[in-house]
Structures are given as structure tokens and as C-alpha cells.
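Long-time lurker. I teach an intro course on protein structure, and each term I like to show students one example going from raw sequence to a predicted 3D structure in C-alpha cell notation. This year I'd like something fresh instead of my usual example. Would anyone be willing to generate the C-alpha cells for the chain below so I can use it in lecture? Attribution to the forum is fine with me.
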Amino acid sequence: MAKSSARKLKVFQAQFGFFDTVVAVPSQAAALRAWGVRQNLFADGQAKPATDPKAVAAALAHPETPLRRAVGTDDAFAVEPTGLPSVPDAPKTPAPKATAKAKSSAAPKPPADRRALDAAEAALRQLDGDRKREEASFRTQQDALDAARDAAQTAYVAGRKAATADVVEARKRYRSAGGED
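-- Reply from a regular --
Happy to contribute to a lecture. Here you go:
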């Protein structure tokens, strides 16, 4: 007896694209190798043991060779299938209703009145303009205050310098006249 016939073969099935496939092999790992995939399709339920008697018979007649048939057909499994997958008819779209015609023949609505919107937008622009002018006035006033403060600081420094010089000079004269601190 040959080695291949002595092995117990199991038949597995999976779907790849437009084809249902079956393969007769000794194990799930051998089935994955025969299909040429590395992902364990059995773990997530994409592959399973075959239960269709015709599929099992076809696979056992061609051990370790993946057989295919178009999805959704009852064709026999073959190495090179000739059938095409069956595609369900597309749902028919309903004919346009008479209401569509009624809408197109009805008089167009008059344009909406923009007067309230235009007035509100104008008020907003006015408010923004007033605020910009107010900020400019504040900046001008702040600049004038900063200049006045700088002038006052400069005058203070010059006056203090002169007053300190006067104190130093007066102290010298006081000491030279015999006074003590």
C-alpha cells in the first residue's frame, strides 16, 4: 500500500474571493499549505470541515489538490472551474412619483427678506468700528501718559541729582566750619 493511501485524509472547505474551495489533506495545517495561506483560517471560522458529500467525494478523488467552484453555484468542484458566480439581481428603483412633477410645476417661492439680516450685520459692523476707534483713543491716551511719566521721571532724576550735589556741598562747608554730623 502506498504511503498517501495509508494516511487518513480529511476534507476542508473555505471561500476565497469568488470561489468555494475544498481540499483533502491529513490536517488543518496541510490544508492551509495547500491553499497557500499563512493565516489560520480555521481559528476565525473562514475554513471548516466539509460536510457536502459531493464536495467530499470530489476532494478525496484528488488528494492534496485544492478544487474550486464559483460561489453560489451547484457546479462540481474542479481544478479549473468553468462556471461563473451567481449574482443576485439588483433591487429595482421605484419610478419617480407624481409629487416630483407637482413640485417642478409649482410656482417658485419668493426670495427670503434680507432686511432684518442686513440691519443686524450693519449694527455689528458699527459696534466693531466703534470699539476699534475707542481702542485707538485709549492707546493715544496711554502714549501721552507714558510720555508725561517719562518726562516727570527725567525731571525728578535731574532735580535729585542737583539737590544731592547741593547737600554734598553744604555738608562740606558745614564740616569745614567745624560742624559735626
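Some talking points for your students: Residues 41 and 47 are 5 Å apart (CA to CA). The chain has a mean pLDDT of 85.
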